[in-house]
Amino acid sequence: MKSEHESPDEVLLLNKIRSTYPVTGMTCAGCAVSVESMLKSVKGVIDAGVNFADNSAWAEYDSKKTSPGELRKSIQSIGYDLIIDSDNSAELQESLQQKKYEDIRHRTIRASILTLPVFIIGMLFMDMPYGTWISMILSAPVVFWFGRNFFINGWKQARHGMANMDTLVALSTGIAFIFSAFNTIYPEYWHSRGIHPHVYYEAASVIIVFISLGKLLEERAKANTTQAIRKLMGLQPKTVRIIRNGIEEEISISEVLPEQIIVLRPGERVAVDGMVISGSSYIDESMISGEPIPVSKNKEDKLFAGTINQKGSLHYKAEKVGADTLLAHIIKMVQLAQSSKAPVQKLVDKIAGIFVPVVIGISILTFIIWMLFGGEEAFTHALLTSVTVLVIACPCALGLATPTAIIVGVGKGAENNILIKDAESLELAYKVDAVILDKTGTITEGKPVLTSMDWNPETGGDHDEYLKILFSLEINSEHPLADAIVKKLKADNVSGVDLSSFESLTASGVKGVYKGLEYFAGNHRILDEHNIALNDYQKTYLKNRLNDASTVVFFADQNRVLAIITIADKIKSTSAEAIHQLHRLGIEVHMLTGDNQQTASAVAEEVGIKSYRSEVLPSDKADFIKKLQSEGKVVAMVGDGINDSHALAQADVSIAMGKGSDIAMDVAKITLITSNLQSIPMALKLSRKTVQAIRQNLFWAFIYNLIGIPLAAGVLYAYNGFLLNPMIAGGAMALSSVSVVTNSLRLKTLKLNSIKS
User: For residue 33, which of 155, 151, 166 has the smallest C-alpha distance?
Assistant: First the structure.
């Protein structure tokens, strides 16, 4: 049970609580590592993780040993905070992020105004009278007021033996300013030694401005990566009208309870999942199914939160509210996926955790080497290079490389009806070289429908009375196939007749009496039991129907077969094209089904699958996947039923059809909300492009530091006298973070409906 202070963003797992909370105050990947480390150190915490890109942290903990309050205290001790005591934590986090963005923007603008004259003096008028004093007065507020957060956060980290980007910035700008201030106030110290006292006010100020500008652009870009979540949240209305004691009243969406009657007017969004109790309308369910055509809704039909009512008015009963609705489930899956870590990110986190201390060590070593071998201006060069190393080595780009790509990739998938549960599946999916498809509900619609009704020519052309008799027989039948016949006859406005008697015949069909004559509906056994024969035409027709994987129902009177009714689980219109696309990608496609050999063969042939197995048990599916895996294949399993859950769990990448069972969707790592199988190659393409973006980001982040740090240390000085200016290093550092985020945001423009690229 939740405490009053727990976030609504929680899932109960095996008597343990997994909570996701917004984090405030993080400024770099090193911050994320520090927060994660502190969370894991709290007694009772089983595991924890932090996503720097969306400023969130999750913790799985034993609620008997710790609480959200304890988690918050541990984070507050190193200068950050968790939002745990708000029912609207997402809105509060967004508000705080907006406030943070505005704060950074104002600080950047004001710091830039003061820095501009300092930069001009330092670059163009170094020898102007009182120039160093003017620079010192103008740069002091830039470094110690507008840049105060770097020093505050750096000190909080140091108290716990930790270091992050703020540590680097505070050390570099603080040392540069103090050294310059000493040279401004006591220039005689250097003059007496024959050395000109250099100052670096412009470097310290410009570093603060560039890093603040980089953070400003970074915050804006990071906000764009979570647009998918905000769009999904925006699908649910804030208020709803209910009928209470016969009176209509408006209440908050959070107050809706199961069984309450809700009024849905034209143009409104469905507030919670429910069932129509009166009225009729058409509902736009494209956000769930991907199908643009509105769906007719009448009494006892299901409604889903976030879908849009068209012209009619409805009253519906609330069934699933709050976190139980399909929309809430979709949002939860996207949030969990965006906060999960790809395997490569775990390695990057380890690197980021030791990166800052290593950089500080390199900076100190650089200072020592220059002091020993730097010649006449050893101290000046030692200070300049060590400060530059601290500035250029910010690990932000490294920390943002993977999570930004994952967040944008998961969001892009959600926009295209592809829900990805965790980053590992997104990273692994591009390696898939074998796809296993279930038949029923995956390749086919999963619903038997009446496809044809072939009448005996001897009955003549008027079948109205026969149809009414058939309707009366089937509407009283309990056989699942009867529903398909009744649904079709209802659609054709066929009504029933009053049968004088009705009997259900076990394992063969049903019998009824109308106007003294017996009528039958059922399988071939019912004909044998009552000595009813097929004519030659019907025998030929029957053979053709059985060859195309159809199920046949016979409608007969006591002397002859009146009609042969064909019922089939129709193949989805997109299945064949989706399988063709997978083949074009070089992926093996296998079909495993519990259906009979004849049906399996017909379906496989129609959609272009050469490898298939029929009459398989759930364990057989899992064993087949193991066999492929033993051959070195990376296997994706696509299914929709409870019987597929074992195979889904065994597969490397598990994909559930969104209209399938809850168990299948819980086991699967990827869920296709739409029934369109073309989402499978789309998901594989999304994985490939996301992994490409991650690799590009990591390449530039690592190359940047591998080249930048030696340059900052002055390795080229002995060859051509080149030393990297600290303020140029600050600009390059900021640019690297922005470039990584921008590269990830390119995924938002990806066209998933084309698999050529």
Answer: 166
Alpha helices in 643-678 (DSSP H): 645-650, 662-667
Do 623 and 645 meet the contact criterion of CB atoms below 8 Å apart?
Answer: no
**Distant-in-sequence, close-in-space partners of 425: CB < 8 Å, separation ≥ 6:** 653, 654, 669, 670
Proportion of the chain above pLDDT 90, given as a percent: 12
Question: What count of residues does the chain have?
Answer: 757
Residue from 323, 277, 291, 317 nearest 307 by CA: 291
Any idea which residue has 């429908």 for tokens?
449
User: Of 40, 97, 304, whose CA–CA distance to 216 is shortest?
Assistant: 97
Q: How far apart are CA 458 and CA 729, in angstroms?
A: 93
Rounded to 10 degrees, what is the CA torsion of 187, 189, 192, 194? -70
Average pLDDT, the chain: 79
Q: Is 731 exposed, middle or buried (0-12, 13-18, 19+ CB in 10 A)?
A: buried
* Amino acid found at 212: S
d(CA 606, CA 690): 33
Cα-Cα-Cα-Cα torsion 614, 606, 419, 406, nearest 10 degrees, comes to 100
85 token code pair: 């005591």
- Write out the DSSP string of 53-109: TTTEEEEEE-TTT--HHHHHHHHHTTT-EE--S-TTHHHHHHHHHHHHHHHHHHHHH
* 67 in Cβ contact with 3 (< 8 Å): yes
d(CA 391, CA 728): 9
Give the pLDDT score at 365.
92
User: Domain 416-444+571-683 is in which class?
Assistant: alpha beta
Give Cα 177 distance to the centre of its chain.
45
d(CA 427, CA 413): 13
* Residue 269, strand partner residues: 308
The tokens describing 341, both together, are: 């870590």
- Using one digit for the tens of pLDDT, what is the confidence trace for 284-342? 776 554 444 567 788 888 898 888 888 788 899 999 887 777 777 666 655 554 455 55
List, for residues 651-670, the tens digit of each pLDDT value: 888 888 766 545 445 666 78
pLDDT at res. 275: 93
* Under 8 Å between Cβ of 380 and 176: no
**Share above pLDDT 70 across residues of the chain, in percent, rounded to a whole number:** 79
Task: Return the closest-CA partner of residue 454 out of 543, 328, 519.
Answer: 543
What residue type is 542 in one-letter code?
Answer: L
Q: For residue 232, what pLDDT is reported?
A: 63
Contact 654, 663 (CB under 8 A): no
**Structure-block tokens of residue 231:** 């769009």
690 close to 405: Cβ distance less than 8 angstroms: yes
Q: Reduced to 3 states, what is the DSSP secondary structure of residue 513?
A: strand
> In angstroms, rounded to a whole number, what is the distance separating the alpha carbons of residues 78 and 74?
7
CATH of 10-93, one of 3.30.70.360, 3.40.50.300, 3.30.2000.10, 3.30.70.100: 3.30.70.100
Q: Maximum distance among all alpha carbons in the chain?
A: 129
In the CATH hierarchy, which top-level class contains the domain 447-570? Answer: alpha beta
Q: Is 199 helix (H, G, I), strand (E, B) or coil?
A: coil
Domain locations in the chain? 10-93, 237-324, 416-444+571-683, 447-570
For residue 201, name the pLDDT band (cuts at 50, 70, 90): confident
The span from the CA of 340 to the CA of 338, in Å, is: 6
Whether the Cβ atoms of residue 166 and residue 147 lie closer than 8 Å to each other: no
Residues identified as active-site: 438
Q: 55 and 15 in contact (C-beta within 8 Å)?
A: no
Ramachandran category for residue 31: left, alpha or beta (phi over 0 → left; psi -120 to 50 → alpha): alpha
3-state secondary structure of 193: coil
The residue-averaged pLDDT of 94-98 equals 71
Q: What is the pTM of this model?
A: 0.56
**CATH number of the 237-324 domain:** 2.70.150.10
